[in-house]
Amino acid sequence: MLEDIRKPSLKKERAVLVGIFGPDTPRWLAEEYLDELMLLADTAGADTATKVLQNRPHPDPITYIGKGKLHELKQLVSDKDADLLIFDDELSATQIRNIEKITKVKVLDRSGLILDIFAFRAKTAAAKTQVELAQLQYLLPRLTRFWTHLSRQKGGIGTKGPGETQIETDRRLIGKRISTLKEKLEKLDKQRTTQRKGRENLTRVSLVGYTNAGKSTLMNALTESEVLAEDRLFATLDSTVRRLEMENHEILLSDTVGFIRKLPHGLIESFKSTLDEVRDADVLLHIVDSGSKLIEDYIEVVETTLEDLGIIKSRKLLVFNKIDSIDPETLISLKREYPGALFVSAIRGIGLEKLQEHLGKIIEEEYVDFNYRIPMSHYKAVAYLHEVGIVDKEHYDGNYVSIEGSLTKEDRAKFKSMLADIKPLINV
Prior knowledge:
Helix content: 40-55%
CATH superfamily of the largest domain: P-loop containing nucleotide triphosphate hydrolases
Strand content: 15-25%
Strand order of the largest sheet: 6-7-5-8-9-10
CATH class of the largest domain: Alpha Beta
Number of domains: 4
Structural class: alpha/beta
Number of strands: 14
CATH architecture of the largest domain: 3-Layer(aba) Sandwich
């Protein structure tokens, strides 16, 4: 694991970043990917000594970059006084073992680095459990004798048998721990479900986007709260929910972990319960960094990740944030390319009023007017309308209540089902 950046007295590790380019990934794009990898390394607490790109049609299955290039990399590590190699793609156990054997330094791949960051960022019990589960699922197929550290067995020195036994012991320990963590997550998930049931009558809006798009800053600006927001990747892991009072609506705004390309599959799986806030949302606000060089790529990553999670929402609004960081010509170009999007600066408060107005219109599209005359004996029905709808007028007339307002189509269907046995019930 990388050194804990919370301990400034410790010497920061120096990393050499490695990637490949070829027919499927042009050099300029591979360079952008390494720039992002450098941000990830910085977030984890490592300094980047240098970056290396190798031209290959596909990764070498034994050493990723080829044996000759690997020996050059060994010399570069020595020249740069580096103690860590970080590769931009996921490596197999064989590749990691061979690279470490030749370079004599620690090797991490992109997935391992992201998992390390998540482990540092996790604060709540749920996040810590989810990260540990993902780490163990990542580690399990990569166990080698060089890595055995989860338990110790006494035996003959240098013989193969004890090493193999050690690996099997580690696998059993990891397998048991994975089962325990999955059970714990199931209990936490039930608790989250119970908490969400208490908020069912409010419109839920969830912020999604590529990591560091400014979602937390936008939440703070809209709700006047103080959610952690900093210019680092994955500043937010746990779901944060805040109430937003609008002119005619009260909504629950949620912010959760940002997405990134090549997000480890195990991490997505283990964070499904956290992402339930997104899955259960009525509206998604897809936040995009206006100043990014890879806007199309990042939008696609988010959309693909949502699809992989089975989250397909018809009500979705594309919101370009950080417009204060781009020039007017770029802004005009973006507006032309994305005519249905909104453009804001959360940190400067630009466009937030228009965003709320647009969000209100999206919510109201699901609302229908009602005008009921209900027997007083069915006071629960009246209370239900007050709870889930927007009541504009209410008049008591003898044994009846005349009530007007609006509510969602879904709530109206539930209401009609509730009153199916009431006679007379007049729907004007």
